[in-house]
């Protein structure tokens, strides 16, 4: 068998391909930029092909580099996990990246059972509206909304998001109650340009464009819109599965059984293919799929 290329060269290639920068890779590895460039040149000489395309002020992976990078990243991830598994410290940290509303209204109310089942795993929850980059950010798993697929990531469907108008009882009483779908149009609407509104209006037999021209009160997260709805500021288009206690306590009402779904709002658990066997990821995957009522994978 042909001997492997020098480990330092492979390590430099893994870092540069992840950062897409010789400078940032050098900082991470504690090397000079010229030393990193030298290691890449050694590897390119070994494989007989360029691994990067040098462009003004940027680099890109060549065809050969693009084929090699995922395998090398996976190999280094496997080695890191193998070494970590030998540590006397059995404690592990699970970093979860998720959307604010999903975290606040679904995940945190259930996380206690995960921690009881896995006391050796410390959980760190990070919320963001943006997709996390698994190659560049410290994260183990993420909850994404969309349709996918996402290259390099394993995905498991958690749930389709359902939505319907919800409001405070006090706001409904300002017009003598909400008895038919058209009554909704008599009230202030939160986020009237939300693409869920036309879908629900159509399902309710109303003009999908009925809210056009209204002032657009836009919130960064559904949880904020729900808070405004509870305060009686307007009608929100919300996910009833996220607000069972508010409905039970009468802080919110769901006036109609007309509930819609949106395929683009499906929630997925995702994680890097190269880390699919990490113990903390396996444990969380099995737990959250059970909580969501779907089969584990």
TrEMBL record:
The record's annotation in InterPro entries points to:
LysR-type_TF_proteobact-type, LysR_HTH_N, LysR_subst-bd, WH-like_DNA-bd_sf, WH_DNA-bd_sf
Which UniProt keywords are listed? DNA-binding, Transcription, Transcription regulation
Lineage of origin: Bacteria, Pseudomonadati, Pseudomonadota, Alphaproteobacteria, Hyphomicrobiales
| PANTHER family per UniProt | HTH-TYPE TRANSCRIPTIONAL REGULATOR, HTH-TYPE TRANSCRIPTIONAL REGULATOR TRPI
Record has Transmembrane as a keyword = no
Please tell me the species this chain comes from.
Answer: Georhizobium profundi
Q: Which domain of life is it from?
A: Bacteria
The UniProt entry's sequence similarity note says: Belongs to the LysR transcriptional regulatory family.
Q: Which residues form the HTH lysR-type domain?
A: 5-62
List the protein's name.
LysR family transcriptional regulator
The entry lists its GO molecular-function terms as: DNA-binding transcription factor activity; sequence-specific DNA binding
């Amino acid at each position: 068998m042909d001997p492997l290329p020098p480990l330092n060269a492979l390590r430099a290639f893994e870092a540069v391909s992840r950062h897409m920068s010789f400078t940032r890779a050098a900082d991470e590895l504690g090397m000079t930029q010229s030393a990193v460039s030298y290691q890449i040149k050694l590897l390119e000489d070994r494989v007989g092909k360029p691994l990067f395309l040098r462009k003004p002020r940027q680099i890109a992976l060549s065809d050969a580099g693009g084929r090699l990078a995922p395998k090398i990243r996976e190999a280094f991830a496997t080695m890191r996990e193998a070494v970590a598994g030998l540590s006397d410290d059995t404690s592990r940290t699970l970093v979860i990246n998720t959307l604010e509303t999903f975290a606040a209204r679904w995940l945190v109310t259930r996380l206690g059972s995960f921690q009881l089942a896995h006391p050796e795993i410390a959980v760190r929850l990070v919320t963001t509206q943006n997709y996390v980059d698994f190659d560049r950010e410290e994260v183990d798993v993420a909850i994404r909304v969309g349709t996918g697929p996402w290259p390099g990531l394993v995905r498991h469907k958690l749930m389709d998001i359902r939505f319907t108008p919800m409001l405070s009882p006090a706001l409904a009483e300002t017009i003598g109650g909400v008895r038919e779908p058209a009554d909704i149009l008599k009230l202030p609407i939160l986020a009237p340009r939300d693409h869920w509104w036309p879908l629900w209006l159509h399902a309710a037999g109303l003009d999908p464009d009925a809210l056009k021209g209204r002032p657009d009160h836009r919130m960064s997260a559904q949880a904020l819109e729900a808070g405004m709805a509870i305060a009686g500021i307007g009608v929100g288009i919300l996910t009833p599965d996220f607000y069972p206690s508010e409905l039970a306590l009468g802080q919110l009402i769901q006036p109609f059984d007309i509930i819609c779904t949106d395929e683009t709002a499906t929630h997925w658990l995702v994680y890097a293919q190269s880390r699919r066997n990490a113990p903390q990821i396996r444990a969380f995957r099995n737990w959250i799929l059970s909580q969501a009522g779907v089969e584990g994978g």
